[in-house]
Amino acid sequence: MVCLSDPLVQKICSLYEKISKLDNLSPSKDADALFTELVKTCIPPHPVDVTKLCAEIQLIRTNLIKLCGTAEGLMESHYSTILGSFENPLDHLHLFPYYSNYLKLSRLEFDLLRPHCSSAAPRLIAFIGSGPLPLTSIVLATHHLKTTTFHNYDIDASANAEASMLVGADPDLSGRMEFITQDIMEVSGAALKQYDVVFLAALVGMEIEEKMHVVEHLAKNMAPGAILMLRSAHGARAFLYPVVEPRQLRGFEVMSVFHPTDDVINSVVVARRCPKVDQVVGGGGGFGHMVVCSKCSEIQPFNPLCQMNLIDDLAVELDHL
């Protein structure tokens, strides 16, 4: 068990103590400085395996992910309000401090997605957990998927209202983007089957059990062959975001797993909904048992390095399968 003997873990725990004592997680000099230091601490490659952390550090990691998620939502709302004050908000996206990261991440996800699309571009994409500043949808729609329609789902009506304001002045994007206030667990199979691709934001389901309930709902209701794009985390970055292991994606054939080593924080998992997925209700609670096709436990690695130079390293997780 890894506990406080690791200097990296010690520093992260020290930052957690300081962050947890903040009166407010909204953007401020103190909050910005602490979260910036935390991100810089977690970015460099480190061999830490979060599954082997002791119970005390596991709890700290869980709480830290929740704090980061809350702070991220407040920061996005803060900058969405600023951007919404301009006549043409999309002309000022660079004001968001992490805009360049979204440009890189969206390009990465597009390059990972492209080989698995049956047509030149998906017709309809769902983004689950789009928030008040839906930069992934905006960047993909503007730079990479210029004919695709995006349905952005968020449970928070105020977040959708802020997001809608950002694209309202753009005649193209406002016609290709819809913002839907609904819990994804309440979205019907008929609705989910219409999507060629579903993006699941990293902070939808900050507890792994909650995230797996969402994945199970998608496995039961997405169209066979549709693509699921998930964001995960690797190494010390797992103190910032939840980790999704390929073996947990029952009902999906995992196509590729990509772990960035630059300032793009999130790992990306690309999976295809299996042709046949039947739900067998198990006893005693939990997720039940998924009867899945034979390819659900396979990984077919895809290396986009020949097409892009954004990411320095490709690592496909096979050891837990």
Automatic annotation (TrEMBL):
Single GO biological process annotation from the record: nicotianamine biosynthetic process
Enzyme class at the top of the EC tree: transferase
Reaction equation(s) it catalyzes: 3 S-adenosyl-L-methionine = nicotianamine + 3 S-methyl-5'-thioadenosine + 3 H(+)
Pfam families: NAS
Keywords: S-adenosyl-L-methionine, Transferase
Ranges in coiled-coil conformation: none
Enzyme Commission (EC) number: 2.5.1.43
Any one Gene Ontology molecular-function term assigned to this protein's record: nicotianamine synthase activity
Family statement: Belongs to the nicotianamine synthase (NAS)-like family.
Stated role: Synthesizes nicotianamine, a polyamine which serves as a sensor for the physiological iron status within the plant, and/or might be involved in the transport of iron.
Protein name: Nicotianamine synthase
Species in which this protein is naturally found: Erythranthe guttata (Yellow monkey flower)
